[in-house]
């Protein structure tokens, strides 16, 4: 048994002392390999972190051995609610708590042997870092993309803060905070808002060019929610006002039964009939409690009321009732719709509930009828299908200026203030008239031990009176008492790594030297993390990056060219790991018992990186035993080196191994790569002698991305240089002895299996071998083979009935 404690310590010390993972800058090719930087919680690293971090480490080590300049950094996403809540509970300061956690995280990462360049380490709570977070904010402000607005926000009483839409989730139809599951209500408040909606189209377009999982792109696409349609103008009867409705089905306009406004529609009270107003107001209040999902769900009972006024149909001049209902969202389209019950599900439910007329304008088999068909009862559009009907109706309305094409997005602007303490302060001052003045220099987060919320709408910073008020040239100003959300720092941290100098300082983000470095390193070549960040971090980061591109700071439109979403590491019981279930696995104990190399190998051997998989400590022990076995096999062979021996089979096997490991690492199939290494060791264990240590050296290098300490130790034992001075073995294809050919087996025209054939087999033998394969058997069971056609060394067709 090898002494993992001794060996792992020894090599970690060596790597530290020899700057083994320093970012180089003298090669032709580069690889920027990025992890989603952790939030340094009190719980430390968990095995889920280690899964993604091991995967990126394999790639970073592999790229270094292949003569790439590699940037593989780590840092701390250290502002945020949990530290603040912990501080409130324990009376500690979030800064000291966070520092302690970071120290613990760093030593855990080192314990795992990850090849980070720690000189590039960043921390979002470091003023030298967030001075640039503030700078980006100021640039957004200067370009009109940041403003203070009185808006309906998601207010969470328990957390004492506003939350972004992306931070609110639905549980049983109720809106709750993503953190803590506390109730969230809608409430109008003055808040900083970033206009991500102005970037909706750009963010949508570029998605197509990214090498991201399709499911992740879909999530972003749906979140952005582009919809093309029409705005139709409706004149209000006996009034000069008009109302605009948004529709994607202009063709159905002859089937309108009512115009329906959202409860928040700005014209609602103005145009409603006096007698109805009290009732309408109480309806509006009721709808505040409901979530958007609850409001728009098809299955939910519809509510609403007539507001006592009418609109005039733009084509028929017919009087159409105007209603208010909360299934109409104010933030979508124009906050008002034309209800066509015969051809829309929600409108149908609404019409049924309130007994509105249902007029069919497409030949229908059932109601509501959502498909295309021949239009009826539609004057100019009779006999036409959707496309043509839309065109003629559009033309007719357009002549009278009653319609325009409109693209709408589901994406909402990003609410950017939080009434918290532990975050980036805003680099602004307000004068006595509430005008905004940007602060040129850093606005540092003031120290206080009183981080309790000051009252229900102001952050704890309002408690610090001598910070809050400032006097400049005899004029009085106030600081902003809000701080930025946790997502601010993570929206650009991948650029900060590039800015970080080895002496701990940062290049200015807007300097020409910085730009040169971005040209070298961006975009990120590989980014691994969980899918839970699909619409939060990954959308915000794309938005900021695209903005920085537009103002000429960075050279790529997109920050992350390739993303892999790692699957969840589940507890041994197959459930998501959680403290309450008591199924959390602690990496510290595992490393102490089996070693970091065994843990790294195990995490990669569990299954494909993208799959969710359950923990199994027995398999980890098996991996550890395999490492011991490698030691035994090598020790044995080292005693039997015979420079005269020739073994073409061994030459073939090692070259095949080089090819296989290379291909599988390139395809991120780490579990398969490890199984190939295992098969090779089995083969080596059958040999009596080898002619040199080259095969051992090559094996050690192939193993090194997965189990670096162990690999270094092997190299050391055969007097080879450390990994830092090695390169990836080069495959010699000529040495690979051609294996037996593989043929495909088709059953009724579909490939169902592959089979290796021995050259001496005749056709009859091949058919009999093929039909006895389990994967073929299940397709021919209880069937009759009518015919077989064999194409030499390629395919066997079996026709069955
Ligand atoms: C008339 C109509 C007839 C519609 C018909 C659909 C079918 P998607 O496709 O989900 O984006 N709508 C418009 N504004 C709305 C709002 N603020 N809140 C809720 N619903 C709204 O939906 C587009 C359709 O949603 C629009 O097209 C409109 O109903 C409704 F046979 O207009 B339609």
From TrEMBL:
Record has Nucleotide-binding as a keyword: yes
Leucyl-tRNA synthetase editing domain residues: 221-397
Segments forming domain Aminoacyl-tRNA synthetase class Ia: 400-603
InterPro entries xrefs: aa-tRNA-synth_I_CS, aa-tRNA-synth_Ia, Leu-tRNA-ligase, Leu_tRNA-synth_edit, M/V/L/I-tRNA-synth_anticd-bd, Methionyl/Leucyl_tRNA_Synth, Rossmann-like_a/b/a_fold, tRNAsynth_Ia_anticodon-bd
GO biological process: leucyl-tRNA aminoacylation
Annotated Methionyl/Leucyl tRNA synthetase domain residues: 37-168
Binding site for ATP: 579
One GO molecular-function entry: leucine-tRNA ligase activity
Domain Methionyl/Valyl/Leucyl/Isoleucyl-tRNA synthetase anticodon-binding: 650-765
Reactions catalysed, as given in the entry: tRNA(Leu) + L-leucine + ATP = L-leucyl-tRNA(Leu) + AMP + diphosphate
Compartment(s) of residence: Cytoplasm
Gene Ontology CC annotations of this record: cytosol
Intervals of motif 'KMSKS' region: 576-580
UniProt keyword Ligase present: yes
Enzyme Commission identifier(s): 6.1.1.4
Homology family: Belongs to the class-I aminoacyl-tRNA synthetase family.
Protein name: Leucine--tRNA ligase
Gene it is expressed from: leuS
